[in-house]
Design a protein that fits this description.
The complex is a heterotrimer.
Chain A: E1 4-15, E2 18-30, E3 35-39, H1 46-54, E4 61-66, E5 69-70, E6 78-81, H2 94-98, H3 100-105, H4 109-122, H5 138-151, E7 156-160, H6 168-185, E8 188-193, H7 196-202, E9 205-210, E10 215-221, H8 233-245, E11 264-265
Chain B: H1 13-37, H2 48-60, H3 63-95, H4 97-110, H5 119-126, H6 130-154, H7 158-166, H8 171-209, H9 215-222, H10 228-259
Helix pairs in contact in B: 2-10, 3-4, 3-6, 3-8, 3-9, 5-6, 6-8, 8-9, 8-10, 9-10
Chain C: H1 4-30, H2 42-54, H3 57-89, H4 91-104, H5 113-120, H6 124-149, H7 152-160, H8 165-203, H9 209-218, H10 222-250
Helix pairs in contact in C: 2-10, 3-4, 3-6, 3-8, 3-9, 5-6, 6-8, 8-9, 8-10, 9-10
The chains are: A alpha/beta, B mainly alpha, C mainly alpha.
Chain lengths: 266, 265, 263
């Protein structure tokens, strides 16, 4: 698995009303097999940062390295899962979708199907291999999307608010599933979300970004033991700490700062 | 296009058929009444049975099938030309800026001009007969095909393109695996519109181009001898062919592709 | 709203392409490969066009054609629009009209020309009727689809807020149907325009853009044909941009509402 290094990355857009700095000197180092969440309000540049790491955008300045080789464009060392369910190709079955990356790699038909099926089983959708996406629910489609992003064995998994459009119950189930999958595959994960509870549940470390321009404000390690209980006191405390850094009114100055021990201010 | 009946899943087939047949029965009855009322000369307003007789007579004699076949052949020839050229140009336009720059102005200007307006010009250049008819049909029906294909290629969802790129698809494979299937709903719409155009134009062209055999010519020619019954028989055949095109050809293709994939617009 | 540089680019490339196409044509015309009568040079076409406009004949032709289009189109609206709306509201009516419409639709309007000529003789009536036939179906179907597309939730909400039948119709159904009605008008007009040219070629005894093109064939006047094509194109374009373009823009309430397919 690879580590990721984002060093002094800035992105400036040209707009009719002048240049706009979307991201200002972001520096983040992600260890191999670490689960990193990026949290922040709209406009803070978190999705943009993800797109930079994915290679869909190029930084105006700064450098991104994956496993010590510098990034140039998109590549098969990274898997991407977007928020939109419609990211699946409607003209291919679930199996066909998951096997796409393997097809691009040039594997034989039997091998492709074998690997694709095993990944569908990983996300518990083995029996739906031959269904078309429009027959699957939103949660199921996102699971297929995850399987698809993992099937060709990238070392890094990039996820942009993948569960934001799901209902609360499905979302909880998906988070648990993702945690299990990650434990089984140990990919380096960069996960963007605006949902604080989700970040606390999933992440080893949380990066908080603030908007206008997008800047890394603080990094918070989450040292709670896994599997995590979202209703435990410690969990809620972590959430409060995180919210505090996000600028919410909640003040938890009296209680012990469980998550703040390793907090690094930027 | 039948009316939707959401409630009556269990409505018996017999009832459905009866319900759909009723309007025709009523209209036919009204027609009969008018025909026999003597308001119009019998020659010009033949009763239903006379039309039916003409239909049977001409079919049995092989005349009607001959006309119908020629018409369908012309239609197919023209449409296939239009489909091949149209999809190719549309894809080129969607893929390469230069092609778009060259073709879009031409297509935008040519499209609003009614197809038949070109007919006399084509007749002048290519003479009367089959060549003109096929070329004209092809020319006119190409426009909606080009336009819709172009739109479809450009409308392929960004998220599909990005997902495929992330999974290692280069430009060529992106085109084959993502752009083409992604644009299919639009391409099919374009083909459908193109066929409808072709059909509408063809009947008129046959009347103008004095082709030896063809439903349009049959109807037009019958005018001279006041053979209204033959005309109406011809029109009925035209309706049947038009309906068959819609239901048998396009419905099938759509069901097999975009309906199956849940991509209906 | 397109940004300025993009519009400029569009205008520039249109002009360049047209100039290039014109140059190619001119070269072909002057090359002597084709008879001058069949492939007239552009200046000749231009001169013919100017002459026809100056001596007023073009104006007569345009007026006749437009008059026929308007008659048929208006009739189609008067019949098709209310019928379509009623079909959407009254099940029994829909059950009656739909099979008939489905059977008639695949018949091209021009197929009826010979029958109509026998019944009504050559002339304006036939042309206008053919236009009516062609324009009816898009109008009817779009109105019907539009009425059915009115979201039942809106009706329920309005009903809950005390709207009676009349108010519901005026304030929810009509505005809700409007995008479809506009699409219907646009499609109906396009069909009318196409139908009138064909009908004039076959059934008009004098005057009309379709008639003049067809007549020109007898005398091998390709220049007259092309001049008329230019006029037809110009009028069609003007209608599309001025009338329907602004209609669409004015009813900005189309935004966020169901987009009927463009034809």
């Amino acid at each position: 698995m690879s580590d990721i290094e984002i060093r002094d990355v800035s992105l400036v857009y040209d707009t009719p009303s002048g240049p706009v700095k979307a991201i200002d000197n972001a520096t983040i180092r992600i260890a191999a097999s670490e689960f990193l969440c990026i949290v922040g309000p709209s406009g803070c540049g978190k999705s943009t940062l993800l797109n930079l790491v994915a290679g869909f955008l190029s930084p105006t300045s700064g450098e991104i390295k994956i496993g010590s080789s510098p990034l140039s464009g998109h590549g098969m060392d990274r898997g991407v899962v977007f928020q939109d369910f419609a990211q699946l190709f409607p003209w291919r079955t679930a199996l066909g979708n998951v096997a796409f990356g393997l097809e691009m790699k040039g594997l034989s038909k039997e091998r492709r199907e074998e690997i694709a099926l095993s990944h569908l089983a990983l996300v518990k959708l083995g029996e739906f291999a031959h269904s078309y996406p429009h027959h699957l629910s939103g949660g199921m489609q996102q699971r297929v999307a995850i399987a698809r992003a993992l099937a060709y064995n990238p070392s890094v998994l990039l996820m942009d608010e993948p569960f934001a459009a799901l209902d609360a119950l499905t979302r909880d189930a998906m988070q648990r599933l993702l945690a299990d999958v990650w434990r089984a595959t140990r990919k380096t994960v960069v996960y963007v979300t605006h949902n604080v509870a989700e970040a606390v549940y999933l992440a080893d470390r949380v990066v908080v970004m603030t908007p206008h321009p997008g800047r890394v404000k603080i990094e918070l390690p989450i040292t709670l033991p896994r599997p995590r209980d979202p209703l435990s006191v410690e969990f809620l405390q972590c959430q409060k700490d995180l919210l505090r850094h996000l600028g919410s009114e909640m003040d938890a100055s009296d209680a012990p700062k469980i998550c703040d021990d390793g907090a690094t201010q930027r | 296009m039948k009316a939707q009946v959401p409630v009556a899943q269990h409505e018996s087939r017999l009832r459905v058929i009866a319900r759909n047949a009723l309007p025709f029965v009523v209209v036919a009855a009204a027609w009969e009444a008018l025909a026999y009322a003597g308001v119009f000369p019998a020659r010009l307003f033949p009763p239903v049975e006379t039309v039916a007789a003409a239909l049977v007579r001409l079919t049995v004699a092989g005349i009607l099938p001959h006309h119908a076949l020629d018409t369908v052949l012309r239609l197919s020839g023209g449409f296939i030309l239009a489909a091949i050229a149209g999809v190719a140009v549309g894809i080129a336009m969607g893929r390469w800026r230069l092609a778009e720059d060259v073709f879009l102005p031409l297509v935008s200007i040519g499209a609003p001009i009614p197809g038949l307006a070109y007919a006399p010009l084509f007749l002048l250049w290519f003479g009367l007969g089959n060549l003109s008819a096929v070329l004209l049909v092809g020319f006119v029906s190409a426009f909606p095909i080009i336009f819709n294909t172009w739109t479809g290629v450009k409308a392929v969802k960004e998220v599909w393109v990005r997902s495929a790129q992330a999974m290692g698809a280069d430009n060529r494979r992106l085109f084959r695996h993502i752009i083409l299937p992604g644009a299919l709903p639009y391409i099919l719409t374009g083909l459908r519109l193109g066929l409808a155009q072709a059909w509408r134009i063809l009947v008129g062209v046959e009347m103008l181009a004095a082709v030896p055999w063809g439903l349009g010519w049959l109807i037009f020619g019958s005018r001279e001898f006041l053979n209204t019954d033959v005309m109406l028989a011809g029109i009925i055949v035209i309706a049947i062919i038009g309906l068959a095109l819609e239901k048998l050809v396009f419905q099938r293709i759509e069901d097999f592709t975009i309906v199956r994939w849940g991509m209906m617009k | 709203m397109t940004a300025s540089p993009e519009r400029w680019r569009m205008v520039r490339r249109t002009v360049v392409t047209l100039l290039a196409a014109a140059a190619l044509y001119e070269a072909a015309a002057r090359s002597g490969i084709f008879p001058a009568v069949l492939v007239p040079t552009l200046p000749k076409v231009a001169r013919t066009l100017v002459n026809l406009v100056q001596d007023g004949t073009m104006l007569w032709h345009v007026s006749y054609t437009l008059a026929r289009v308007m008659c048929g189109f208006a009739l189609a609206i008067v019949v098709g629009l209310p019928l379509g709306i009623l079909m959407g509201r009254i099940r029994a009516l829909e059950n009656f009209v739909m099979p008939l419409a489905s059977a008639l639709m695949p018949i091209p309007s021009l197929a009826w020309v010979p029958v109509f000529i026998l019944w009504f003789g050559l002339g304006d009536i036939v042309t206008a009727l053919i236009v009516f036939y062609a324009a009816m179906f898009p109008m009817l179907l779009n109105a019907w689809t539009g009425v059915r597309a009115v979201n039942p939730i809106w009706l329920r909400a309005a009903g809950a807020m005390g709207a009676g039948e009349g108010a519901l119709f005026r304030k929810v159904i009509i505005p809700g149907t409007l995008p479809f009605i506009i699409t219907g008008l646009r499609q109906a007009f396009q069909r009318s325009w196409i139908a009138v040219i064909g009908a004039e070629m076959l059934a008009a005894s004098d005057w009309g853009l379709g008639w003049v093109i067809f007549d020109a064939k007898e005398f091998l006047n390709a220049d007259v044909m092309m001049a008329s094509l230019i006029v037809i194109g110009g009028i069609g374009y003007a209608f599309e941009r001025l009338v329907f373009g602004s209609l669409e823009r004015i009813t900005v309430l189309r935004w966020g509402m169901v987009q009927a397919a463009k034809s």
